Amino acid sequence: MLALVQAAIVSGAVSSAAIRHWIARAPQEVLAQLGAQRDRRTGLFQSPHPDTVCRTIAQVNAAYVDAAYAMHRTGQLRELYDDPDELIPMTVDGKTQRGTAIPGTPARHRLGVQLADDALMVATIDVSSKSNEITAFAPLLDQIGCLKNVVISADRLHTQREHARYLHRREAFYVFPVGGNQGPVRPARRSGLEGRADRMDHLRPRPRPHRDPHHPGHARPATTRFLHIKQVFLLERHVYDLRWKPLSNVAVLGVTNLPATLAGPRRLADLVRSEWSIENKDHYVRDVTLGEDRCRVRTASAPSILATMRSYAIGALRLLGFTNIADGTRWARDDFHNPLIALSLTM
């Protein structure tokens, strides 16, 4: 049943009606490969009733589905990163499903971790309406069996000492930005980085077309309240219009437990920049191409399971070489067998 729904989403089905329509039109050989039941009287494979599809998605435990998808994707890491000493950049961020909001009830919110370079969602989890992303951070990463040599980047919300302890315990690295009011930056202030950050709002640098906009500066703090820090860096961003007129100047302080031997200035800049990959290559695609925010499915586990399936569909198409997911869904719609190819379900 879930395999049929996943194949429909790979084909670009953006609503429950579109999913049911795809399943109803699937040919016999596709139904057979996706596990449809055979009618004892006619001997033909039957498409499940639309109501059965909706009830199944709503009643399945979303946590079990998240764990199953995470286990499958984690198993693919060995193929993508065959060097045991290679750093594996991942980024953590949350997304609100706006279409699930109803009067008196906030919209659902989910937290995910994605391979930054390959833009593949590795694991996702629901964030309780009575909690926040901070408490979901460790349970999310617990779905990944091994975090050795993984580099986790996230926004300031996740610059937490408990997160640093957790990642260090699991032999992972972190690259976190820090706010001016957080304890971890106090040693950086004494080292002179804070003064540079404070002055950035008043700077008017001359345009330099050849200049890389990311320039991490380094300082080695003598003491710090944040655990396992190996480097503190300052990232300066200068934004210009098309005529090289300065628009804004921003300085961001950051901390990492990566030693300089593994991550120099350029590597740190790449890791910080990769934080945005989950927004650009998953969240945006789910909203614009796969219509997540327009989807009004709100019953029980259905919104969470459909969100997981959308991310998996995006990853499946990227593994086939599609950088434009809209093109990928059009290719999948050309033939009912194409989604099976994307999902590696062909015999």
Written overview of the protein:
It is a single chain. By secondary structure, this protein is an alpha+beta fold. Helix content is 40%, strand content 17%. It has an eight-stranded mixed beta sheet with strand order 3-2-1-4-5-8-7-6, with helices on both faces. Mean pLDDT is 83; it is low at 184-223.
Keyword list:
alpha+beta, Transposase Inhibitor Protein From Tn5, Chain A, domain 1, 8-stranded mixed sheet, 15 helices, 8 strands
Summarize it.
The chain is α+β, with helices and mostly antiparallel strands and 347 residues long.
List segments where confidence is low: pLDDT < 50 over at least 5 consecutive residues: 184-223
Helix/strand-derived category reads: alpha+beta
Our count of helices gives: 15
Shape: elongated
Radius of gyration: 23 Å
Give the topology, please.
Blueprint: H1 2-10, H2 16-25, H3 28-33, H4 50-59, H5 62-75, H6 77-80, E1 88-97, E2 108-115, E3 120-127, H7 133-142, E4 150-153, H8 161-169, E5 173-178, H9 186-190, H10 193-199, E6 217-219, E7 231-240, E8 246-256, H11 265-273, H12 277-288, H13 302-319, H14 325-334, H15 338-342
